[in-house]
Amino acid sequence: MKISWKTLLLLSLPIVVAGFFLWQGLLEPTTQTISNNITSSRMTYGRFLEYLNMGWVKKVDLYDNAHTAIIEAVGPELGNRVQRIKVELPANAPELITKLRESKVDIDAHPLKSSGAIWSLIGNLLFPLILLGGLALILRRSSTSSSGPGQAMSFGKSRALFQMEAQTGVVFDDVAGVEEAKEEFQEVVTFLKQPETFTAVGARIPKGVLLLGPPGTGKTLLAKAIAGEASVPFFSISGSEFVEMFVGVGASRVRDLFKKAKENAPCIIFIDEIDAVGRQRGTGIGGGNDEREQTLNQLLTEMDGFEGNTGIIVIAATNRPDVLDSALLRPGRFDRQVMVNIPDFNGRKAILQVHAKNKKLNPEVSLEVVARRTPGFSGADLANLLNESAILTARRRKNLISMNEIDASIDRVVAGMQGTPLIDSKSKRLIAYHEVGHAIIGTLLEKHDPVQKITLIPRGQARGLTWFIPSEDNSLISRSQIISQITAALGGRAAEQVVFGEPEVTTGASNDLQQVTSMARQMVTRFGMSTIGPLSLESEDRNPFLGRSINTGSKYSDQVAINIDQQIHKIIDHCYRTAIKIIIDNRVVIDRLVDMLVEEETIDGSQFREIVSEYTDLPSKPNYISQLSISE
Ligand code: ADP
Ligand code: MG
Ligand code: ZN
After folding, report:
1. Nearest C-alpha to atom 14 of ligand 1 is from which residue?
2. What pTM value is reported for the model?
3. Which residues surround ligand 3, an ion (CB under 5 A)?
4. CATH code assigned at 62
5. How far apart are CA 453 and CA 55, in angstroms?
6. Is-contact 343 351, C-beta < 8 A?
7. So where's the catalytic machinery, residue-wise (predicted)?
8. What angle (nearest 5°) sits at the alpha carbon of residue 497, between those of residues 493 and 503?
9. Do 245 and 335 fall within a single domain?
């Protein structure tokens, strides 16, 4: 665990400050009170003025900022004896002093009780003392704790920000679903443990391994696992920490890092986000970043400078391999590259199993079902999902995580926070028709994923949602599957139009239409699924981790562009007709489902199918096939 002293300071500051006020609060009241034991008799201010006029007042002692006075007076009422009497003075009586002077009364003003004043002085001095003492303690704490084994340590000497873990405590079993990468790394572990086996036959041990993959897939975890398995120290620094505003600091950090590593060899040096330093040199606005180039040069020099058998292996991670400087990828540097991808179904199941180990799951929870519902989730997403479910379980004061909490967490991760449902109104009915439209088409069309549930409880941007169960990880999708998906996605708008009429259709379908258009366009331009033929017209050289496509301009004639548009129209038009037909044909069951949905807000997939099957055959004997032959 690494806690910097800055965080400790920040954490402790409010406590110390609160302590200060408490302290002051304890001290102040004692300074305010005047010892009442001097006298028990009291006199009103008016009576006091009368006494003054009569010349009976001998002496006035003012206390408490002239709010109280103890007077010494003689008078017939007092039995002609000098008595001490307490008088409360009004807040604003400046003329009193003048009057007292005129009457030649002995006046004396007393400051706040002296012992109180001393205490308050001590209190004021004590606060900074406590603060300083606390600071010293924190500093000492953090410097002593860092020398223990297995602790993170920052090297103060050289402004370096890298961390060293003597033992990461992570093993390969903690990393799941990335079997190929693990195999590759098993070898690296052997290099570190028994280098002789390799050097004996003249093999050069690789110096660097580059881990490529999207965020959250376990790259950092894998690097730690290598160090853990080989029981060697783990030095880590992130690329963005290398690049600092001050010239030369990045380069000197690299030097320090390698120096320290050599002293501790065999070991692992892990450079996270290497793309921050390892970017193609000489690029960027204004001819590139000098500082970054120096850092990168230093890194390359260091990597060239140590022999393959010194027992240092540099592992770097990035999700932007496309921007890396080619010099980094040359043999003798990061000559091994390992891809870590978003896990597939089996990978997700394995990762869920790893993270379920320390969670209390209800025995009825099937991690297989969870894995099936979470395509596209990374390892970090899955870990987070189980954690969210555990938090939700605790909040519901249950002691076992059930499928219910896991489902709610998935919904939240995928679609956003849950909102409050609408009250029954025309717009609620319209949303219900829209969602039932999606669901019924998804159910009645062959080759469509089954409905998991329909709900009118808003989430994120959506005011209603139809969830489908992705049947398997389809890396290959057939043309008829895409056609079915387009048709079901148009089902919402189709239902609005059939039920409420063209003038009443809403903007609610805009997201659906976006998806539909994009799918149709890809059919034509990338998958060769239209009359234009098997051509790739828009080579979307989409990098799997960039997420965004860089369209490198069209490589076809205007004539082809017109043709593409026509094809897209044709596909969407065909699908929309099918959708309208299915809605009209099944209007009776749709009305019943909408009533039910408005009433209950959520309909489960199996319940939905059961009701639909009372009216029509389900597509085990498909009754609607969205046919559109390529040559049409
Ligand atoms: P990356 O470095 O690729 O962005 P991390 O290694 O930091 O991802 O992963 C973050 C967390 O997600 C890990 O600490 C771990 O809890 C979880 N995680 C990610 N991938 C896996 C995996 N393959 N197996 C088990 N846990 C994983
Ligand atoms: Mg990472
Ligand atoms: Zn919709």
Report:
1. 221
2. 0.63
3. 492, 512
4. 3.30.720.210
5. 96
6. yes
7. 435
8. 115
9. yes
